[in-house]
Amino acid sequence: MAERTNGKRNGKSALRKIRHYIKRSMARAIGHLTVLQLLVGFGICLLITLLLMGYQFQTIPDYKPGDVADRTIEAPHDSQVEDPDATREKHDKILALVPAVFELDLRVNQRIESELRASFARGRRIVTETRSDLGVPAGRPFNRDQREEVVSALREGLAEPDENNVLEICAKHDFSQELESQMAGLLGKAMAYPGVIEDRNLLLRYVDRGIVLRDAVTGRDQKLSDWMAIRGLTQARDALRQYEFEMTAVTGDDKKRLIGYLETWVRPNVDFSEEQTQIREQTALAEADPVIIQIKKGRTLVRAGDEISRQNLVLLRAFQKEKQPFRLLSRFFGIFIVVGFFMSALWNYLAVFQRSRRRAPQHYLLLATILAVNILVTKVFVGLADVLSDTTLLSEAVKAPLNYYFLAPVAFGAVLVILLVDAQTAILFSLISTVFVGVLTGQVSMSVYSLAGCLTSVYVLDHYRERLAVIRAGLIIGVINGITILALHLYASTTSIGWLGLTIRLSGGLLSGLFAAMLASILLPVLESLFDITTDIRLLELSNLNKPILRRLAVEAPGTYHHSIIVGTLAEAAAEAIGASALLVRVGAYYHDIGKLKKPSYYVENQIYSANKHEGLSPSMSSLILASHVKDGLLMADEIKLAPKVKELIPQHHGTRLMTYFYQKARGAADDKQPSVSEDEFRYPGPKPQSKEAAILMLADQVEAAARTLQDPSPGQIEGMIRRLTQATIQDGQFDECDVTLKEVEQISRAFARVIAGIHHHRIEYPGFDFNTPIEERRTEHQRVQ
After folding, report:
1. Any residues with CB less than 8 A from the CB of 696 and at least 6 apart, and which?
2. Are 685 and 633 in contact, with CB atoms under 8 Å apart?
């Protein structure tokens, strides 16, 4: 019992945790929404709902049978219309085949036989008692007076009518068991299976439908092939006379009188079961489908000048109902609820589960824009397909609108999302988009087709490196579209579209992938600029070392330029090791120190032939100059319109680290006037790294600088140096705001060690040259030789 109680507690505790998690997630997703954001979300749902409505403006007059149509009316969309009259006729035919149920209750036979035998038992007792009172021994016949006294006693004791002197006849035979058995047997044969019905005309009413005889005791059914076998009361009584030869206990007139008496004991044991019959009728009707008329879009419902027939009226009224305001409102609110649910799920994902939650509103607007454009483009293609299918130039074999629906570039939205956001969001977007495509077209096959193309684009473009990747993805999407169309055709093998129709669909699937790539390529720079988003293609453009800002860096601050290139190599290797964006971190390394262009000579890597300018400055002033390159870098990033993702790395690559050299120098110079030095004055402004890429760049920047201080770098020294730097950075709390793990830090360190060891590799000495000897010594030795 205790274990069971603990199990219940654990179950309730788990449910409470789940409810708490859901509430917390919803609170984080919805709790901070402003009124403006709610209105924007409502407007987005409203816009998408209107795009999915697909309302046709053709009006349908209220005709009556016999009216003449004043216009030609075509079906605005594919539909299924029930024909109520045909359905009613079908139901009548079904009911005519449902057999009527008659219930046979053989308990009536048992009850009557029991009553008959009970009467005989009482009669025997009365006769025996009377013989004893009169002193007439058994077997001796009664005289007249004695017989009258016995009959009188029987009438009083049995209280039954004495028709045809039946009591006298039975008393004459002392109500013998032989007579009792013979009379009960005759009665049983008259009322035997299939029973006796009170009125046989009731059977005639259901002869055409068939008759089922149901046992009232067992509930078993038996279809009655010969309804004539059921006797009426007259036939049952006639059966008594047919079998009167079996009554041998009496003869002559006594037998006729007893047969007539038995006729009063015959009762009906078969009756019509209206309840069971109705149940079977309702079951049969429930299994019967209504008569449905398949209406294809564009089918002429009635032509101008034609008389309105019953069939025309059924079709017109069905489409007329769809035009009624409450039907339109019902459809609108139904679609709006579905759209609202999926758009809320999308917002909840961005706000709660996305890594960069600060950009959730921006990404939500981006996804909503792409989704609306995707639906709009699909709707345009579907409309063109409908127009094309209506042309008289096409044969009936290829006029189906679905043949041309597959031309719609349904996957281009997913292509844009994978390029502009990330793969996880693109998968969720694909699921939502395919649902909306299915609602728009009214075809489940289009949902499957759309989902296959969208997921293919996510897989193909998850890691792309050049613009040609989009075109290549379009070709692959087209091939997958063709395979999906073929699979759908094989699945729906009952509907033959012919080889020509299948060829059109396959061609449309291939072109759809190319259209998706083309539209994505056209819209990508527009959306990238409009929503201030950095794509890999933009990063590839920024990675060009011939960019003016990088050429300036190479000329004006060569040490910083070389440092940036090495940091990029280190960071790229580390990013590949942990699955981060190698391209982003490499480009970020190229631009992370562009702020040093303002005062390049104040940084040690650029002080090649000049003295260190910080020797004449106070430590606090030196720290301000060093920290200023972050602010200057941000200003220059704005001037050259650097991509936001790259710009974010400029302040984050230093985080809030301590400028240890100048801090220690300030502490060493402290005196009685200024006994303490605050670390905050010697820290970079931050913020701390917010992503794995920023954490990698921070470590790569430190490792590259520290590696230059090694006199004779060996693998052990390199690994020790990297380990000390990473541990110091972690202890300083620089990674508290990003999602990098200790395991990933270890992988980053190993990647750094491999690259640094490759840079500082050993080479054999050149014969005849000693490059390690100072130039002055080489000159003296050369003169002596001369």
Report:
1. 571, 574, 575, 578, 580, 585, 740, 748
2. no
Q: Could you identify the residue written with the tokens 């699979």?
A: 487
Architecture of the 353-533 domain: Orthogonal Bundle (1.10)
CATH code 1.10.3210 for 547-759? yes
Q: In which order are the strands placed within the sheet that holds 211-215?
A: 221-224, 211-215, 100-104, 270-272, 196-197, 231-232
For helices 692-707 and 558-578, give the axis angle rounded to 10 degrees. Answer: 130
The helix (H) or strand (E) run that includes residue 62 is none
Every domain of the chain and the residues it spans: 106-195+230-268, 353-533, 547-759
Which of 384, 403, 474 has the alpha carbon at shortest distance from 445?
A: 403
Q: How far, in Å, CA of 97 to CA of 92, rounded?
A: 9
Confidence band of 515 (pLDDT split at 50, 70, 90): very high
Cα separation, 638 vs 648, whole angstroms: 11
d(CA 214, CA 105): 9
What is the rounded CA–CA span in Å between residue 426 and residue 433?
A: 10
- The dihedral built from the CA positions of residue 388, 394, 399 and 405, taken in this order, carries a sign that is negative
Quick check: pTM over 0.85? no
List, as one string, the DSSP characters of 65-88.
Answer: TTPBPSS-EE-SS-EEEE-HHHHH
Q: What is the pLDDT of residues 130-157, one digit of tens each?
A: 887 777 777 777 777 777 777 777 777 6
Give residue-wise pLDDT tens across range 696-718: 999 999 998 888 877 777 888 88
Give the pair of three-digit tokens for residue 518: 């083309």
434 contacts 447 by C-beta, under 8 angstroms: yes
